[in-house]
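Task: fold both queries, return tokens.
Query 1:
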Amino acid sequence: MSYDVLVVGGASAGLTAAMYASRQGLKTLVITKDIGGQALLTNAIENYPPFEHIGGFELMQKFEQQARNFGAEFAYEEVLSITKHEEGGGFIIKTNNNNRGYSGYTLILAFGKTPRDLNVKGEKELNGRGVSYCAVCDGPFFKNKKVAIVGAGDPALEAALYLKELASQLYIIHSTDKPVGSEDSIDLLQDKDNSNRISFISNSIVKAINGNSKVESLTLYNSKTKSESKLDVDGIFVEMGYVARTDIVKDLVKLNGSKEIIVDKYCSTSSKGIFAAGDVTDVPYKQAIISAGQGAIAALSAYNYLQRLKGKPAIRADWKSVVNKK
């Protein structure tokens, strides 16, 4: 199956691009590891009109639903490679779950910063089968199950505070002597009422994620005792923060010295048919509202690009009334 638009990224830029592209009648696929990106790191957004106060996850849910309402499709997968289609133009995106790849005529790069991987044995193989990078997104699937969080700082602690209401047993794995982050969060997690269900595992790193069709256990290495042990769990949440990874497109588009994608006022890149939006671009201001605006520009530019290929007129606005495809 071939798409008109392939969007890489599931936060404000990518979701807005998907909504605008779908609204123009373009067959659109969003490929992303999670929904929300860095917005999930905050429970309070106060500078996104028209909301005086809204949680990051709630806002991103609204973005996603609006894109779906206009017909956008979603693949929750990790992008492994992006190449130009040798025959007929367009692009092919291969993912961890689709070796043949998704084919599209245009490409919108809107992945911003992506979750850091552990880079350990079993992680890629069990991604989506007990390995998650978004506690808020996937937490409900682990109700009354044993889960582990690996990471440090407030992102890991916030994930733990959320998961403690769902999991039967929660392990927080960190490489330091003591937990790092908000003292209030640490106190809540170490409260005596939680002592039977929540355990901090210090001076430890994950060496491997074990399981056949799903996560069954973790291999841990303790830097103090120099020993390995196994921890039986049903899932692991990787909360290592986010990083910009543009190496995957360095041979497709021009990057600046900070490895950001260079775009013009139309969000066009140096390659025909490829557009970019959001934190991954060289636009200096990194805000959700700016990423969303860029996403809209990228989608309309992709639409106009396809119109020109067909010999049809381009558009300059998007004021038409469209019935949602709920």
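Query 1 returned. Query 2:
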Amino acid sequence: MSGFRTFLKSGHAPTLFAAFFYFDFCFAVWVLNGAMAPFISETFNLTAAQKGFMISVPILAGALMRFPLGVLAQYIGRKNAALVEMGLIVLALMGGYFFINTYDHVLAMGVLLGIAGASFGVALSLGSGWFPPRYKGLAMGIAGAGNSGTVLAVLFAPPLATAYGWQTVYGIAALCMLAPMIVMLVFAKEPPDIEHQSFRQHIACLFEKDGWAFSLIYVVTFGGFIGLASFLPTYFYDQFKVTKVEAGQLTMLAALMGSAVRVVGGYISDRIGGINTLSGVLGAVAVCLVLCGLASGSLVMTTLLFMVCFAALGAGNGALFQLVPLRWPLTTAVAGSMIGEIGALGGGFIPNAMGLSKQYLGTYFWGFASFAVLAIAMLVMLRIMQIRWTRTWAEKGGRARSAPSTQPVKAAA
């Protein structure tokens, strides 16, 4: 406990809390269509492939919006960028409440919900910006635990949709978004860890192998989290014939594990290194995904396996973002947004792969198996890349150096 108090005193705790609160509500909005997918699918009589595509649209849109928001944050400040984004989210949700009538409208609403998915890089950089390098993994883990917004969505959206209709949930969500806006306005302070650099310097990580390596690993850890969290209500409802509310509750159990363990992942990575943590995570995720596909006849076993899988994914997200500020100490917000953008695109892969697998092969297994293969491929890449990383900007295993350089690391050839 004394160690945690020391951690809080080393930075600005109110800003960290505001960043978590902001990300939590944004994440809930981002996965709203996934949480309500059984209701929407029933309303419009969707095929398995249409369900998968509908669920993937907000994920893909959010991924594409992340990098522009990260760049904007570098110029107007992360706090201001967060407030602008939340204002746009409220407008989008009100539009959904008044104008959704067809499947095409749902797809268009999915694009607007992507605005909420853009919050990731800003939230993590804002939350960790006041903390020294040795605590950034934990700070990012706490801010990133805002992905527990998935829990809010899958727990509350289905019963609200049952009681009032799924379109009404958009209006309720718009009102709820006012809470994090007020918290951000009152409690958050813009961190001092910012430098005036050229646009080329801001996007330098786009032209480096390390940036793409981080992004591809994040395709598995975060893409897996957001993709599965969005698709699981549909999977439980279709595969096991549970009620829509029960499907949300079962998804909540898995998502809660991923959100809670993200903090642990950052904490562990500060001590044993993000590379070591990620190595264990990728192996565990691959095994769990295959077993989930094989356990499709048992609701209890499937639920337990998803809980373990989500715990590994959550730890992996915390571990990867323990490494980001070590690699890009001066442009963490933009680097994080770029990595988050590419990584979140992986979340769009899972719903589509699952829907296509079910529609054309008659089983969800090959959707699970394809993502497991990707996890193994990323593990192999990580073990190769870490040889150079531990010679340049990180200690063995991916820990922070005792006296980290404030200069950007030279791009890999």
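Both queries returned. Flag for query 2: The longest helix spans residues 209-240.
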